[in-house]
Amino acid sequence: MRTRIAHLTHFATFLASCVLPMLAAAAPITVQGALRVGALPAPDGSYGLVFALYANETTGSPVWSESVPNLAVNGGLFATELGKAGGAPPDPALFASEQAAWFGVKVGGEPELARRPLSSVPYAVAADLAADLATVLACTGCVEPGALSSDTPFAVIKVGSDTVTLR
What is the pLDDT of residues 18-51, one digit of tens each? Predict the structure, then answer.
């Protein structure tokens, strides 16, 4: 019985890891960084930063940007979630293409710092692999999002007089 429950648990986890990302809307993106003045950390305080995404390393207008007027900096370090400071998060479609994207940061009235290329994180690589598999595998009799309800049991397992209902 434990083996069957373990298999069902693994299947439910796999299903959730595949379906939930497809249902996700644009979500904030966590950004962490360090501000320096020469070789030293920037003084503690609030700084106005503008974050932007570009399709090109050195030219062109941003495809997305957000201004964070009062970002706390402590010991030269900052952290924020883009899309929570009053602007909309970047559209996930910006990251769906295989084209390079560049990240720019502007501090106060200073010129924008050199743009940095965005790179994949392990979860994004796994999501890309899953997307590739989804296009290769033919799906017949698939369960569509919204077809499951918390009122409908996922599985009912009976062993002797014991019953386990998974929802």
Answer: 433 443 456 788 889 999 999 999 999 999 999 9
Domain housing 61? 26-121
CA gap 30, 137 in Å, rounded: 33
Where residue 114 sits, what CATH number does that domain have? Answer: 2.60.40.380
* Residue pair 62/52 in contact by the 8 Å Cβ criterion: yes
Beta bridge partners of 73: 45
Residue 96 lies in a domain: yes
| pLDDT higher than 50, residue 7 | no
Q: What's the token pair of residue 145?
A: 């999002």
Structure tokens at 30: 């966590």
Q: Provide the 3-class DSSP secondary structure of residue 134.
A: helix
Q: How many domains does the chain have?
A: 1
